[in-house]
Here is the input.
Amino acid sequence: MATHPITLTVNGSQRQGQVEPRRLLVHYLRDELGLTGTHIGCETSQCGACTVILNGQAVKSCTVFAVQADGGQVMTIEGLAQDGQLHPIQEGFWEEHGLQCGFCTPGMILSTYDLLLKNPDPSEQEIRHALHGNLCRCTGYQHIVKSVQYAANKMKGAPAVAD
Amino acid sequence: MKIDGSYTMNGPREQVYETLSDPQALRGCLPGCERFEEIGEGRWETTLKAGVAGIRGEFTGTVTLADQKPPESYTLSVEGNFKGGFVKGVGNISLEENGDKTTVKYSGDGQVSGPLASVGQRLMTPGVKMVANQFFRCLEGKVGSQAPASAERGA
Amino acid sequence: MIPGEFEYYAPTSVQEAVSLLQQHGEDAKVLAGGHSLIPLLKLRLASPPVLVDIGRIQELKGIRRQNGAVTIGALATHADIEFSEDLRGVFPLMHDTATVIGDPMVRNLGTFGGALAHADPAGDWPAVALALNATMRLTGPNGERTVAADDFFVDLLTSAVEPGEVLTAVEIPVPQGKYGTSYQKFSHPASGYAVVGVAALVQMGADGACQDCRVAITGAGPKATRATATEDALKGQQLTEELIAQAAEQAGNGMDFLGDIFASESYRAHLVKVFTKRALLGAMQAAQ
Here is the structure.
């Protein structure tokens, strides 16, 4: 089967590859680029463990072909911390015990990233609505919501991060 | 999975029954039928390429007509494999006179396994009904318009 | 889960897409946002040999308001609709409906046109398109044609889009005068699909009576359907809660209800009445 050349900007650096059209973005990120922070959970577009930011929006990378993302900008969980400094969302999950086993965490964090871009000051209800597509089997939702609130507060208070 | 439904077609009950139990008519109306070979009394092996919208697959299995009580009823069993899993079902087909028309009632119970069953479950009942309607509509077109079944055998 | 092999084309114009579809005939399937199709491909329930990805066709994107109508490009995502203030101002139910589809990631990629063309019996947009009297614009080998929403949803997972055609845009007329809209949905708690969803549009005349109304049901049968008996019971009447409750009893008349492990046929029939009433009350309040 013919392969297609693709160029993606992943976490700020340009990556080129040849992929079969049926190659899912999540497999490309994990298997070819070694970015295994993006997890594969349900594989049926439900759990949100594979969430990445594609062209500024949270998407389920198990439900996108790598060829569809050609020319796009991708940010995975590995691209969030800058210069060894945790992103405020990551810090929130650390401070508020937003993870137990950690499997859903990259997806939770990147969905939160999408939420806070669109709505820097979400209510608890809005946070729960925004995380509707991310499942935590440890059922740590209370702490996850607190982590998001921590991050929202921190990002508001820090002019360097605020838009 | 339980399936119930009915289809009213033009034609007297005897003729409708004849069409509904005629292998040639069944062969022509089973969706995407590519093979329909008799392997025993009232038993056929078939290959169908069928589906609803983009969900298409090849089904290979057996179709059995049993308990034939002309012109009232028979039992139709289907068993076989398709890409998305395994299917097994038994249905009762009964014919009721309805003026100069005949109402065909079907009620059955089926089991489906595999990914189609787990993910496509909510679409399965309406999918089966849709295919059943197409099947009966096609058979309706053949009622009374064909030579007796025996004459066509071996064709 | 890895889909079966397929050839992939990413045309950049509708014309190019149509000629690719024509060239490959039955083998080709259109890929838009992919949120109905890719799960099917991964399970190998569908294995089309050719995918025509229309996702890069710029002319299919965007939401515009002109000449008393709203035109929504087929590639507008559920999120585009959810966050379009302009659209929300004209049809609040578009926003309300978008927010109850899937989850944020699904809404970021899933498209309005894809959802309509897919004609899922439990999809939310088919009911909205029917209630708002939308017109679908299609382009095929013989040029453009339009199909009214009433004729668009043919059967289970079957829309009026012919092989070789692409749904390009949806046009929704903005009613004159006072009107209100509402979408009420009983969601399946796991899948988020509508067990029953009802969309309503109520238009008030100068005399305060209901000049026109459209009600459409999804989730309950093999395809989205209008509740015409309910509509007829309300047209020309001064709307009251009591009258709406009475009219809602007619909703679902003659429908072939779905029954499954989650909701029986009679339960769905009951829900249709309840949600029709809620949608009409919501639309009536919004119209005042």
